[in-house]
Amino acid sequence: MVPKIASMASTRPLCSIPSIFLSFSLLFVVSLLFFFSNSLLSNPNPRISHNTLQNGINVYVAELPRSLNYGLLDKYWSSSSPDSRIPSDPDHPTRKTHLPKPDKYPPYPENPLIKQYSAEYWIMGDLETSPEKRIGSFAKRVFSESDADVVFVPFFATLSAEMELGNGKGSFRKKNGNEDYQRQRQVLDFVKNTEAWKRSNGRDHVFVLTDPVAMWHVREEIALSILLVVDFGGWFRQDSKSSNGTSLPERIEHTQVSVIKDVIVPYTHLLPRLDLSRNQRRHSLLYFKGAKHRHRVTTLIRNSFLYLIHSIVLVSEFMAHEGGLIREKLWDLLVDEPGVVMEEGFPNATGREQSIRGMRNSEFCLHPAGDTPTSCRLFDAIQSLCIPVIVSDTIELPFEGMIDYSEFSVFISVSDALTPKWLANHLRRFSEREKETFRGRMAKVQTVFVYDNGQADGIGPIEPHGAVNHIWKKVQQKVPMVKEAVIRERRKPAGASVPLRCQCI
């Protein structure tokens, strides 16, 4: 047997075919690894890849006249009248100063009542930026309606509404003499005459309506479109036959907004970002800065605005209860609680530094409902690494499905929050390690809620992991449903009527 084995060994080739194949395979893998390692080293930000260009959403920008977007900013900055709703308007000081001639892309207002709703400005600025600077943008601008997934309507609806509200003339509820209504009509008269609108009945059109009263007079006409809103407060229209007027009905009969087709977007934060590395020891348990009374006219802030909202917004009994009475009751329960700081005011020019100190010095920041279920206060808390305490049973939040808020926020039911001593005792039970974990997770998502690209005119590369890209990613999720609805509508027999259905998830 031994000689036989030796003979076989002596006649065996030095390199078999499988051995050669294996050698070449290993050489190929090593070459690939070397190539990709060099690519990663040469790319200072590997998160921005060319694959982004292939995975985005195609956006066509409707050709509205400039007077409905950047021209509105020209008009705003050329005005010499300060906002009648606040004691000190940072954009229109009482003492007249020389205002520079507006550029092609004027800056957005610093007035906090308007700035908190500035999503429309940053979304538009990204789309106006030259293609070579938009490598990190998820929205890919196309210049033919037929190539688009959605049509973006570039109307600064919030700025338009706020300019009308701030003029002090009380014309917002009326249509005659209301410049905001005239602009709303101009927008719809234009887009409804386009082939793109006629093909989809507006279903694939995107409107930015971050202000609770933006496009108030024409909302029914855009109810099928994709609406970018900060929450659904003020949108639900309750059928009077479904409720006795004392409680919220189990089913809302009609609504113009839905998590199925619309996108919840963040407010623009008004306070600067605190880096986790700069976080210091916090001495307060819980912090809140805002108005105690939200369902009444106050002289502290936004008095004219609040009266107007109270008069025109048709909200459910639930919204009025949560936005007003709950905040007032919470205030009374917490104002004398040790370690809790409750301050009247708003983070405007005079109260901004106070808000920064308060949020950065507190472990938790209280987030009850304001004029709407959410407010910029939540996003100021995140930027301040102050753990949000969200008191609501029904709140909708931006980018859910992409972000798990329970990883860095504390959610409290209304009934628990209104139980004496319960809330403060509950927060005291969190250990230092748990709070540090919350802040560490919060630090990882701070960028997600940032709109500002650092450019005064809003034009330039955006933060790839910021708010604008997250908004378009959420819009992209709606596109298949929109296309399905458009196709279903086309095959419907002429004259057929399909009832509106409640889509609940």
From TrEMBL:
Q: How does it sit in the membrane?
A: Single-pass type II membrane protein
Pinpoint the Exostosin GT47 domain residues: 54-426
GO CC term (a single one): Golgi membrane
Primary location recorded for the protein, binned into one broad class:
Golgi
**Record field: compositional bias (Basic and acidic residues):** 86-104
InterPro entries xref list = Exostosin, Exostosin_GT47
**Recorded GO MF terms:** glycosyltransferase activity
Q: Where are the transmembrane segments?
A: 20-41
Sorted UniProt keywords: Glycoprotein, Glycosyltransferase, Golgi apparatus, Membrane, Signal-anchor, Transferase, Transmembrane, Transmembrane helix
The compartments listed are: Golgi apparatus membrane
- Please indicate if the UniProt record lists Cytoplasm as a keyword: no
From the UniProt entry, list the residue stretches annotated as the region Disordered.
79-109
Say if the entry is tagged with keyword Glycoprotein: yes
Quote any Pfam family the record assigns.
Exostosin_GT47
Q: Which family does it belong to?
A: Belongs to the glycosyltransferase 47 family.
List the protein's name.
Exostosin GT47 domain-containing protein
What organism is recorded for this protein? Arabidopsis arenosa (Sand rock-cress)
